[in-house]
Amino acid sequence: MTRRTFLPLAGAAAAATQAQEMQKVARKGRLKQGVTRGCFGRGKALEDMAREAARLGAVSFDLVGPNDWPTVRKYGLVPSMVPGAGTIPVGSNRKENHAKMLEQFKENIPRAGAAGCPNVITFSGNRAGMGDEEAWENSVILLKQVTPLAEEKGVTICMELLNSKVDHKDYQCDHAVWGVELCRRVNSPRFKLLYDIYHMQIMDGDIIRTIRSNIQYFAHFHTAGNPGRHELDETQELQYRPIAQAIVDLGFQGYFCHEYSPLKDPLTSLDAALTLCDV
Description:
By secondary structure, the chain is of the alpha/beta class.
């Protein structure tokens, strides 16, 4: 083979390989699945993560800030959960946090709305000895100040449910019943919960029944295997396919995002998770 004939053939082969790599995996899409950075392990650029997520059939990318939105949008992914206010230990349950959180909400809610980001995240904060009633009352004071803005901008404020047994010691919003009670008191269609299935398996169990009973208060879902917070595979106790089916059967229109840390090849594991939950 001469150099003249080899170069065009090599170029064609490279183009064919690239096309194959970029061919998007077809999904049913009844459940709008997304990803987080953690699914890709360490060392990957966001650009590469977004490209691979889109190729594997994900439709959103969670927990990304404004500087990252253009990158995920480039690959057709929705920034589905973005900054709102507070941090895990410092949240709405203490009045001394309200001024700063109010300022953050007033900046982040309009920005999310303008960019078409459906949800902003917030947290209850740690107990540090505070009782539930006082925490609910304080949280309502803050949230009732910002839900009118969220309603106006078409953005849902989501408080994340987290476990206080393993990962986030002393976190207040650590049971579904606590978060649901807060939703009832705030009484706004734009304040709901981020129901993290991994965290709530640790604290509550009874996942499908809880989802069915409270779906009106759940705007968003996160996944991970338990124990370990790794892949959704045969090594863990959660059965994600019936969980995904139950959510779809309820007519859920929000996002269902994977937030595990892989022990195996990240892209193989992500493909498996997206396939498992594509009911």
